[in-house]
UniProtKB/TrEMBL annotation:
Family listed: Belongs to the methyltransferase superfamily. L-isoaspartyl/D-aspartyl protein methyltransferase family.
InterPro entries per record: PCMT, SAM-dependent_MTases_sf
Keyword terms of this UniProt record: Cytoplasm, Methyltransferase, S-adenosyl-L-methionine, Transferase
PANTHER family for the chain: PROTEIN-L-ISOASPARTATE O-METHYLTRANSFERASE (PTHR11579), PROTEIN-L-ISOASPARTATE(D-ASPARTATE) O-METHYLTRANSFERASE (PTHR11579:SF0)
GO BP: any one term: methylation
Record localization: Cytoplasm
EC number: 2.1.1.77
Chief site of localization: cytoplasm
GO cellular component, one term: cytoplasm
Descriptive protein name: Protein-L-isoaspartate O-methyltransferase
Gene encoding the protein: pcm_5
Amino acid sequence: MNVHLPDDVRRRSAALVTDLEKAGALRSESWARIFATVPRHVFVPRWYEQQTTEAGITAWRLRDDSDREAWLTAVYSDRTLVTSLDPATAEQIDAHTWTGIPTSSNTMPRLVAGLLEELDLRDGHRVWDIGTGTGYLTALLCARLGSRHVHSSDITPDLVDAARDRLAGLGHTPHLTTADARLGHPGTTTFDRILATCSVQAIPTTWLQQTRPGGAVLTDLDLGIEGGLVRLTVDEHGNAAGRFTPTTGRFMAARGDAHTYPRKPRLSYAPVTATRPTTVTAADIRANYPLRLLLAFHLPYSTVVYHSADDGTLSFQLQQRDGTWARAPITGDHPHTVTYGGTRNLWTTVEAAWRWWTEHDRPTQDQFGYACEPNGRHYAWHIPDGRRWDLKNG
C-alpha cells in the first residue's frame, strides 16, 4: 500500500535511509525502499528521553508530538526510543519525568535494518515477529511480505491493541496475539522465520518445534556477561545451529508479566580474599565486545555490575550466584590490579580467556557458532578450529 508522506517526513526518512546505507545496515534496494516509505513517526507519538538529574539519577522525560520539529528529529534519527516504563519501578519526579526501568521501545533503525537483512526473507515466507512493541518492525515485515504472512506477539495487551490500530491506519492487518512467546505461538502455525526482539537465556524448545525444517530463528541470546544476536537454521529433528551475526545489539529481556520484571533477590557476596596484579584490565574488557562474549562462554550466566567504593573508585565486577566475585578498577591509580573473593578466582579465567583470544588473532563475534538441541543442551564454538564451550542454562 502506498502511503502519502508529508514533505518534512519524506525528507527526513530519505536522509535516514541514506545514513543506514552508508553504515552498511541497509544492503538491499528492496529494504531501502520499504524503510523510505513506512513512516516511523506513526508508531512513536510519544517517547521517554533519558536524562540525568542534579542528584546524578537516571530519569526519563516524556516527550510527544506537541513540538513537531523535535519529535520528527528524534523519530527519524538512528536512536532507540523508549516508549514504556516498568510501573513497579517508575517514580514520578515532576509533571513530565519519571525514574524506572524501560520495558518497551522502538528499536534504533540501524539495528532493525540489520535484523531484517540477516533474516534473508523470500516471497511467501511466513514470519513470527516476537515483541510487537510499537508495531514498527511488524509494519516493515507487512510491507515486504503482505499482512497474511506476518504474525506478531507481545506480552502486553495494551501494546498489541495500540499496534493494531497504527498498523490498520496504514492498511496492514497482520495476525496479532497477546502471549508469552517463550511458551510458543498460541496457534498451530509453523514458520519459515522467527524473529525475536527480546533476549532469552536459551532458545525455547517451542521455537524450534514451530520452525519449519530449513527455516531460521533470529534472536538475542543473553549469556550473562555478554550476549548477542544469533541466526540459527533448524533441521528436521528440531536441532538448530548457526552463528553470532555481524549485527550487534542488546534487547530487553523476555518476561512473563505484561508490565513488570520480577524482582531478583539481593545476594550475599563473599568477603575480600585478596588483591593482586593482573595483565587484563577493566578497560580491556569494556573495549572489546567479542572478548566479553568469549568470557560469557567461559563463565555462562555470571553477571556484571559496576561497583563504587567508599573512596569513589568505580570498578567492573564479575559475580556468580554462589557469592564469588572479582573486580578491576575503571577509575583510580591502579588499573592493573584485581580484587576478588569467594571460592574461586574468576579473574584467572578472565586472564586465560584473554590469552586464548589474543593468540587466535582476536576473533570477532561472527567467528563463533552456536547450537541448541530440543533437550535444552546448547553450546558455542570457535568456527575456524572447532574449540567448543558447553553452556549450562541460567
